[in-house]
Specification:
Layout (H helix, E strand, L loop, with lengths): L7 E2 L7 E3 L5 E11 L8 E9 L4 E5 L3 E4 L3 E4 L15 E2 H5 L3 E4 L5 E11 L5 E10 L11 E5 L3 E2 L11 H6 L5 H10 L2 H10 L2 H8 L4 H11 L1 H10 L2 H9 L3 H10 L2 H10 L7 H4 L6 E2 L5 H8 L11 E6 L8 E7 H6 L23 H10 L4 E5 L5 E6 H8 L4 H7 L8 H8 L2
Helix pairs in contact: 3-5, 4-6, 5-7, 6-7, 7-9, 8-10, 14-15
Length: 432
């Protein structure tokens, strides 16, 4: 293999760009597939799991990889777009081997797996030759937390089923990944690993991932968190997404979680649950960007610059008389972000608000909301009750979510391109 290093630590490959022979990027590395073999024979690397533009993962045989560098992997030949499916005899390094507790063969000392390295052979095979581990206890001159790299045959325990396996290494490998892409990885993990990853993610990150998962995965993960943690994660989710998830739960479980939540967090969810699923009230979020009439353009721009704000919500600011929190503020109008960019910073938002456009009503149907946004070329719209109070905002992403089939997320994650089997792949993965 040209450009091949003598040793590659696999966790460092996560997210590395993959290029075809013409130099075009086709995707990014998600994991490495290996076949465990009877001791003392080291595992054999079979290929790379590559996430392509359509967000599904495909298998790239290791025999087609010609270059491995810190920021790029190049392959030669054709990439079969058939969706990758892990076989029973295979193991994923990042998803399944990192964070495991294994032991030294000589004294049985337990250590945690930090990374795994593969090395090329003269026969163009790649074998797992080294394991980076961290000590869990201190013995003699050894320090707790000390890291070291050892030979594969110096440790044992990779083939055993471990309950309560950590997930810090897996999470670190995909730290920069967008929530929707990480959700695709979580969806494909085993139920055991999904629960372990969920337990290791912080509340905010888990909330972001849950919002992108199919309904069945959401319910499964939430059920394994424990009610106190589940309530915390629901508080971190967007109100509309949290309400949708709660609406799918049994009444008793839903009420238990709402009771455990902070009252100010539970109140908007209870309101959202009173609306029909496919109405403006059922689609809206209760956390749009709201300012008082005496706010300046500079103050409004500062609010929509928040990096965690949904881009559709950041597209406009709603002007309400105090108190500005939904649903108590009286709606006066909308200021679009382009208008904010065109006006001097000291300008008061009340003077530039669009007051001509009638807002949405909470009982309006999904189709009516979609037509409203399409007619006026909007990415979001204010929802106002009969007394003129701002209830929330419906964004275009939530409209699309509900216009698509109910299982569209799962269908996207599980979609399989219609490709014939790859003979080289079948020979490689069938010959362990």
């Amino acid at each position: 293999m040209s450009g091949a290093p003598t040793r590659v630590f696999i966790a460092r490959l996560a997210g590395v760009a993959v290029f075809d022979p013409a130099g075009d990027q086709v995707g990014r590395i998600r994991d490495v597939v290996v076949a465990l073999r009877l001791a003392p024979r080291p595992p054999r690397a079979l290929g790379l799991v590559v996430e392509v533009a359509s967000r599904h993962a495909v298998f790239l045989p290791i025999t087609r990889v010609t270059v491995i560098e810190a920021d790029a992997v190049v392959f030669d030949g054709r990439l079969n777009m058939r969706r990758f499916r892990k076989r029973e005899s295979e193991t994923l390094v990042i998803a399944e081997m990192l964070d495991r507790t294994i032991r030294f063969r000589d004294d049985g000392e337990p250590v945690s797996v930090v990374d795994v390295a593969m090395e090329p052979t003269r026969t163009r095979d790649w074998l797992i030759g080294k394991v980076a581990v961290r000590r869990r206890t201190g013995r003699g001159l050894r320090k707790r937390g000390e890291s070291l790299v050892v030979d594969w045959d110096a440790v044992e325990g990779f083939s055993a089923v471990e309950h309560g396996q950590g997930a810090a290494g897996l999470i670190a490998a995909f730290e920069q990944m967008k929530p929707a892409d990480l959700a695709g990885i979580v969806h494909e993990l085993s139920e055991k690993r999904r629960a372990e990853v969920a337990a290791a993610l912080d509340d905010e990150r888990l909330a972001d991932v849950l919002e992108e998962l199919p309904e069945d995965d959401q319910i499964e993960i939430l059920g394994k968190l424990g009610v106190d943690r589940a309530a915390d994660v629901l508080e971190a989710m967007g109100p509309d997404d949290a309400a949708d998830l709660l609406g799918d739960l049994p009444t008793e479980q839903r009420e238990q979680l709402l009771t455990l939540m902070e009252p100010q967090e539970a109140a908007p969810l209870r309101r959202l649950l009173t609306y029909e699923d496919y109405s403006a009230g059922g689609l809206m979020t209760t956390d749009p960007v709201i300012v008082a009439p005496d706010a300046t353009v500079a103050e409004a721009l500062a609010l929509i610059r928040q990096p965690d704000l949904n881009p559709a919500l950041a597209a406009q600011v709603y002007v309400c008389r105090p108190p500005t929190a939904t649903p108590t503020g009286r709606y006066l109008g909308t200021v679009h972000f382009q208008k904010l960019l065109r006006e001097p910073p000291p300008t008061l938002v009340a003077g530039i608000a669009d007051t001509e456009l009638d807002p949405l009503r909470p009982t309006m149907s999904l189709e009516a909301v979609a037509m409203f946004l399409a007619t006026y070329n909007l990415v979001a719209g204010a929802v106002v009750d009969e007394n003129g109070h701002l209830l929330g905002s419906v964004t275009i992403d939530d409209v699309l979510d509900h216009l698509l089939p109910v299982d569209w997320r799962e269908a996207l994650m599980d979609a399989t391109a219609e490709e014939t089997a790859d003979p080289e792949e079948e020979a490689l993965r069938g010959n362990m």
